[in-house]
Task: structure prediction
Amino acid sequence: MTVYGIVIPSACHCLQRDLFFENCAIKTIKETIMAVKDIKLDTPQDIAELLDLEDFGQIYRLADQVRNEHMGDTVHMRAIIEFSNVCKRQCIYCGLNKSNREISRFRMSRREIEETARQAVMAGYRTVVLQSGEDDYFTAERLGKIVGDVKALDGFQDTGPPIVTLSCGELTREEYAYLKEKGADRYLLKHETADDALYSRLHPCGELKSRINCLRDLKEVGYETGSGFMIGLPGQSLETVGKDLLLLKELSCEMAGIGPFISNPKTPLAGEQNGSTELARRAVAIARLLLPKANLPVTTSLAILAPEENPFDFGANVIMKKVTPDEYKEAYEIYPAEYSKTNIVRDKKELEEKIRFYNRVPK
Ligand code: 5AD
Result:
């Protein structure tokens, strides 16, 4: 392994590696940034070794400095509207999967979605994320109208029309292109795991290959494209996480959401262990080194499992806030979580305070 330009024998023990890092005095940000070039992140094995370090402190600091250098201190706040929990897929980790009979299904109406988006934009959010299960009711035509409604919410605080991010699963290239034409700016479609066999076990209803094709289509039709994956999926190894991170790089993702798996008792993965929040943070830090200019959110699942920890000191620069109306919030249960009642204006203020508390600038 080569770190900071110095080859550390790969058989060296964690303790030696820790001593090595302690001795690596970093003097200036510039030096640190230069050092990134020398960290070897070429293969899943390189990354697995890094993830396995006993003391990850230096890498966290490096990731934070790279974030600062390339993205500044701004933390972007995104309002997320979860507008339908109807889903035709059977992803075995997800509470929305169609075999789950224990949640009540809902669809927000076009007007409800528009009204919620309006409130978010009036509260000062500049990006609205529209997320749903894979729900055939929301055809590209219907989605296009909704995108148009949200893009027309112009004129508040002179910031222009909001950025619209869609997260509605796998569609055809033509549908993605159509929605782009209707005004959608960004698309989130996590690859979930880059390991082919694990992907097939988790998704009785899909293939990694099609997922990756969708991501390539999204890029080609001009979206700012986001992928991402879960940490701690049963059967995942550190090398899998290495592969996940390299796939983000290979796809040149503009965004990447990396969060711990949370076991949902209403799914076939009930009773499995939750993913490690430490490993999730480490993976985000490495994503920052691989993709210095990417928008990397603090995922909701990470915030849920580690509510007390600083969410902004390991490379992330984005945070999402649910603005989904209360009557639907509980039913959008991807994994178990407790949410307080939605008050879009108050929630945004609280989020801004939290961001400032960590010496970052909310936007
Ligand atoms: N734990 C953590 N994240 C999950 N997701 C789905 N199910 C779970 C779970 N049990 C994530 C997936 C999906 C996003 C909407 O939520 O990564 O892309």
About this structure: The two ends are 39 Å apart (CA to CA). The chain is about 40% helix and 15% strand.
